[in-house]
Amino acid sequence: MIVILNRGAGRHQDETQAQIKKFFQKRGIAARLFVARHGGEIAQFAEEAASSDGTIDGIATVFG
């Protein structure tokens, strides 16, 4: 599972990031968190993912 966290939104980012990791770990799901410092980075992550072949493997390779 790939999770993109917008660091520029909200408060308590470190706490939120830890909660998200714990959520997936409790369910036995391997999650990779990518932290965007601002909205522009989210767009960049999405653009990079879209440049792949569109499959889950292709998107995972972009974020690999």
Structural description of this entry:
The radius of gyration is 13 Å and the shape is flat. With 64 residues, the protein is α+β, with helices and mostly antiparallel strands. Helix 2 (39-50) packs across helix 3. Strand 1 (2-6), helix 1 and strand 2 form a beta-alpha-beta unit. Strands 1-2 form a two-stranded parallel ribbon. The protein has three helices and two strands, in the order E-H-E-H-H. Helices cover 53% and strands 16% of the residues. The chain has helices spanning 13-26, 39-50, 56-63; strands at 2-6, 32-36. The chain has one domain (2-63). It starts with a strand and ends with a helix.
Please sum up the structure shown.
The chain is α+β, with helices and mostly antiparallel strands and 64 residues long. It contains 3 helices and 2 strands.
Distance between the termini: 11 Å
Structural class by SSE content = alpha+beta
Largest sheet: 2 strands, parallel
Number of strands: 2
> What radius of gyration results from the CA coordinates?
13 Å
How many domains, as an integer? Answer: 1
Keywords:
single chain, 64 residues, alpha+beta, two-stranded parallel sheet, 3 helices, 2 strands, 53% helix, flat
